[in-house]
Write a structure and sequence with these properties.
Layout lengths: L9 H6 L4 H16 L8 H7 L3 H14 L6 H30 L9 H8 L4 H11 L2 H5 L2 H6 L3 H6 L10 H20 L1 H6 L3 H14 L4 H6 L1 H26 L22 H8 L7 H29 L6 H8 L12
Length: about 350
């Protein structure tokens, strides 16, 4: 028996904060990326791990998540992912486009339609995986697929009617899904691989969160001004509530519906969306600088607010329980990831 005691129980302290395993490294990374960016640019393994590792580590997490999905859970996962995509992306983007048809691309209150779409129509898949790893089940974690689909500029281009002005990157959509689908294949062919990859979330989430944080310059967040902050404060309550409604009335998840608020985020990749969309349609270039700063504010603020709201509604329903408790109640221990308490 190992009697060694942690001098500073960092890991357990992070777990006490909703989404803390991702949120705290994200904030720390943004602080270092803002005030000491050169410290992470010295090269070799330091730069590779702490600055450039986000995409490969997220890809590994996606692959590992896929291995935990067996054929018995495939249908519920697709239903959950479809509900999230509907309520987090399709409904908000449609409402924004309707607003744009009345007010034009300039939007309202200094927030352009481009900024609204870039902030509202996507979700932070890393935070979703981190949060559902602790409080969700296999359906919730597998529904990360919704984030893979709505991440990036695809839906912003689509809903802006950019299909006639630029090529919609369908190949990027396919590329985002391949690691997950390969993981599903491997996990169903070899149970040993499924078991080996169960601890992956606890291992990689803090590292890719820190790396993502280094790309969020707090100066850019502040330059977005009060409009960016207000926009960030609206993302989680509005889109999180829409997903909550989907969980409650479409999926009929009862007290666990509060998990839906964890989807009320803006993905880190969305910071680049205004520039990508404007490259497809140069007439939008005038909105890029302000929209980018506003979206950066949304990424940081929603990453803090979404897990807090989700935890509040789960606690109010008496469902703020760790994933292994959920697995026991569902009788689906094999399909879940009990070690992923993030």
């Amino acid at each position: 028996m190992n009697s060694e005691v942690s001098r500073f129980p960092m890991f357990s302290a992070m777990l006490k904060i909703p989404g803390g395993l991702m949120l705290l490294p994200l904030i720390l990374g943004s602080l270092i990326g803002t005030f000491a960016p050169e410290a992470l640019a010295i090269g070799s393994f330091t730069t590779a791990l702490f600055k450039n590792s986000a995409m490969p580590l997220i890809a590994l997490l996606i692959f590992a998540t896929g291995t935990q999905v067996n054929m018995r859970t495939g249908g519920p996962i697709l239903a959950t992912a479809g509900t999230i995509l509907l309520m987090k992306t399709i409904v908000p983007a449609t409402l924004i486009i309707i607003l744009g048809s009345f007010v034009g691309l300039d939007g309202i209150w200094g927030v352009s339609i481009l900024a609204m779409l870039a902030a509202f129509d996507n979700s932070n898949g890393g935070l979703w995986l981190a949060y559902t790893g602790q409080y969700g089940d296999s359906r919730d974690r597998g529904a990360y697929v919704a984030s893979a689909v709505n991440d990036g500029p695809f839906f912003s281009m689509l809903f802006l009617g950019a299909s006639g002005l630029a090529d919609i990157p369908l190949i990027a959509l396919v590329a985002a899904l391949i690691p997950f689908l390969l993981g599903v294949l491997v996990g169903n062919l070899d149970v040993q691989w499924r078991n080996v990859l169960k601890p992956v979330p606890n291992i990689v989430i803090p590292f890719f969160a820190f790396a993502l944080g280094t790309g969020i310059n707090l100066g850019a967040v502040l330059s977005g001004g009060m409009t960016g902050i207000i926009l960030g404060l609206l993302i989680s309550p509005i889109t999180g509530f829409l997903v909550y409604l989907g969980y409650r009335f479409i999926l009929r998840r009862g007290g666990k519906s509060g998990i839906g608020f964890a989807a009320g985020t803006t993905a880190g990749n969305a910071i680049a969306t205004p520039a990508v969309v404007a490259a497809a349609d140069p007439s939008l270039q005038q909105y890029v600088a302000t929209a980018t700063a506003q979206v950066a504010a949304c990424v940081l603020i929603s990453s803090i607010l979404a897990p807090v709201l989700a935890s509040y509604f789960l606690k109010r329903a008496g469902e703020l329980k760790p994933a292994d408790d959920v697995a026991a109640m569902m009788g689906d221990k094999e399909a879940l990831v009990p070690d992923a308490k993030v």
